[in-house]
Design a protein that fits this description.
Strands 1-2-3-4 form a four-stranded antiparallel beta sheet, sandwiched between helices. The chain has helices spanning 2-11, 71-87, and strands at 19-21, 29-36, 39-48, 52-61. It is α+β, with helices and mostly antiparallel strands and 89 residues long.
């Protein structure tokens, strides 16, 4: 429910308190941080053209080295963004 609220706020042009930018992935790529029962979950979405929201990836964050997002998750997000952009050209 919290994630849906954050995406609804994004659809209305705002940004929820639990959202932060995903640095290094381009403008408009954002991360929703969801704590649940002692675990951390992330939902990555991209804003396109002001009217579209693409939910690109969701995963349980299992940090092995500090708080950084694992590289395999970043690689997957980058690949999905690339494929979406190619499809919509």
């Amino acid at each position: 429910m919290i994630c849906l609220n954050a995406l609804t706020i994004a659809g209305e042009g705002g940004k929820a308190d639990i959202v932060k930018p995903m640095w290094g992935l381009g403008s408009g790529v954002l991360e929703i941080a969801l704590p649940f029962e002692g675990n951390a979950y992330r939902v990555i979405y991209a804003l396109q053209g002001g009217a579209e929201i693409w939910v690109v990836h969701a995963f349980q964050k299992k940090a092995t080295h500090g708080i950084k997002t694992p590289q395999r998750e970043i690689d997957l997000i980058e690949e999905r963004l690339k494929r979406l952009k190619e499809i919509l050209r």
